[in-house]
Amino acid sequence: MTDGIPRAPAPATAYSYIRLSSKRQATADDKKKYRDGYRRQVELCDEYLTQNQHLTLDTSLKLHDIGVSGFRGANSAPKGEGKLAAFQRAVEEGRVAKGSYLLLESLDRMTRTQVNVAQAMLLNLVNSGIVVVSLTDRMTYRSAPDDPASQANFMYSVMTLMRAHEESRMKSKRLSATWEEKRRKVGATKLTGRCPGWLTLVGNEFELNEKRVAVVNEIMGYLADGWGRDRIAQRLNNDPDPDKRCWGHGRSWHGGTVQKLTDNRALIGEFQPHKLVFEERAGKLVGKRVPVGDPIPDYYPRVVSEELWVRARNVANSRKLGRAHNAGGQTGTVISNLFGSVAACAMCGQPMNYRDRGPRSTPVLRCSAERGGACTNAYRIPYEDTENAILSWLVTLDMSGGAPGEAARLAEDLRTAHASRGELQARGETIVAEFGLGNRFAKAPLADIERKIAEAEAAIIDLEGRIAVLKASGGRDEREMAVATLVTLRKRKAPEEEIVAVRLRIRQIVRDTFKSMDCYEDGLIEIGTIDGGTHRFRDGYWWHKESQAWLPWAGAMAGMGSRATKAELARRAAWLAEAEAARPPLRWDRERKEWTQE
What is the DSSP string of 431-491? Predict the structure, then answer.
């Protein structure tokens, strides 16, 4: 008052900042009113603006951090996505004018970080010309070096910020202790009401949604039969049955939602406790769920059989390792090539590609490297006769005995893989305990450990699948049924969708059964099976070890429609017998690139 007359405050722009740690605090209740935390902050701001008419509220920056922690500083990380951080950048860039007001319910809405960090944040805003107002206690923080009262406010702010941080720290500590106690008592009580979509927690017991359990088993069955996740999602979305609609957050199934479901070990009853740890990445504070302790078996009721789980996981694992991708040329919507992931040139090791140039040509398998002149294997294997011969032999294959010691060797490999995974997990926990998850010295070794754990888990799934096949008598009944179904469908000219489904299953049987399928330049095919056996084929015939003769495909595959006449088959059998007798007992050594004695 230079002339004794009080002057009205100069007009200024005000910005209202609202932060809630939980999104539930901002949702509407049954009466369509905002819950207390959000409503209180809005009402305090409106009241202050009514009492200070010189302020004009600017809502263009939308300064609402909903479900964001102030204790971890997620709302104010310099390169983060928090709205308070956005306001600080706007101040630095001059988009918020000096003299503007920042209205807060209290200082702890701005931050609950350590007091030195919190005080620096407040001073940075004030020194940039921003007036910060705490609405609950009506404390105002502005740059006024000559005003003792204003300076005293900053001393008060230190105590306020210190108390806010300590409250959050103790709350976090108590919450961690509560969850530790829950995890310790997990055998007697359930940790949380959250559970997979096919379950509901009633009291202290989980109840099954039988319709959803049926859908889960259908999905796992498709995966075990070799269906891709996108194909499974499409099948479910096209099904008119309302019980097969996606029960997740989305309205329809996608490959990602199918993968999330099929990867979930809750299907076999396991529960893996986790805890949330934070690390800084590119200036952002990121929370990461990390496992705590070993998985808890039988926490949930099992909804998928062990046999189906192992088969499905074996298929999923083979896809991750790249073995299930089509490395053999054309597959198409009708699954033309059953051997795309296993057939390889014996001379160079490259995939054997499937080629079909139309109705006037014969589909063949050919070395993919030969076309570019990188391999000498120019033999064209007639695909149709070869498929029929292999499937005819496949239904007779008995792997129940296996090669001597094969089951024991696989079991030992499985024990080794489990031990390796456990050792790696313990090493990772030691590093986290010693350095912390966000420590720069820990990042590289932890990343290496995570990669090795993933490799060990992939090996475990692969070995479990191979052991399961051996235990199930090599899956002979399943193979017979699949091939017989294919024959029946073809004879009655069934819709393509039905044929595709059974060919997908047979293709998966091939992948589960074959370790290798080497194709030589003289037309010989050698198939190695997971039981350690070796089997030979040539030009639509398979070598019958007991009778020491080449046999044409027959029996189960009869009536499939070969392009060769009976007379031609007979002539070819006689020629093959001579060829086999004349063929030297040699094997091509791919690494040394020379023939060696068998």
Answer: HHHHH-TT-HHHHHHHHHHHHHHHHHHHHHHHHHHHHHHHHTGGGHHHHHHHHHHHHHHHH
What is the distance between the alpha carbons of residues 35 and 583, in angstroms, rounded to a whole number?
Answer: 85
Bridge-based pairing of strands 55-57 and 101-104 is unpaired
Pairwise CA distance, residues 416 & 464, whole Å:
13
315: its two tokens: 């298929």
Per the DSSP assignment, residues forming a β-bridge with 286 are: 279
- Judged by DSSP in three states, 150 sits in helix
Tokens coding 517: 């399928």
Of the candidates 525, 514, 543, the one whose C-alpha atom is nearest the C-alpha of residue 367 is 525
* 3 state SS of 247: coil
Ramachandran class of 93: left when φ > 0, alpha when ψ lies in -120 to 50, beta otherwise? alpha
Closest CA to 337 of 380, 370, 393, 384: 384
Write down the CATH number for the domain with range 12-171.
Answer: 3.40.50.1390
Write out the two tokens for 206: 């989980």
Q: How many CA atoms lie within 13 A of 393 on its CB side?
A: 26
Tell me if 85 sits within 8 A of 93, measured CB to CB. no
CA distance 88 to 78: 8
Single-letter amino acid code for the residue at 80: G
Across 487-502, b (16+ Cβ under 10 Å) vs e yields bebeeeeeeeeebbbb
pTM: 0.50
Q: What is the pLDDT of residues 47-68, one digit of tens each?
A: 999 999 999 999 998 888 887 7
Per-position DSSP letters for 39-79, written without gaps between them: HHHHHHHHHHHHH-TTEEE--TT--EEET--TTTTTTT-TT
Distance separating alpha carbons of residues 143 and 126, to the nearest angstrom = 6
332 Rama class: left (phi>0) / alpha (psi -120 to 50) / beta? left
Token output for 219: 């999905």
pLDDT digits (tens, 9 = 90+) for 63-114: 888 877 666 677 777 777 788 888 989 999 999 999 999 999 888 888 888 7
Ranges of CATH 3.40.50.1390 domains, the chain: 12-171
Identify whether the C-beta of residue 510 lies closer than 8 Å to the C-beta of residue 339. Answer: yes
What does the alpha-carbon distance between residue 192 and residue 72 come to, in Å, rounded to a whole number?
Answer: 24
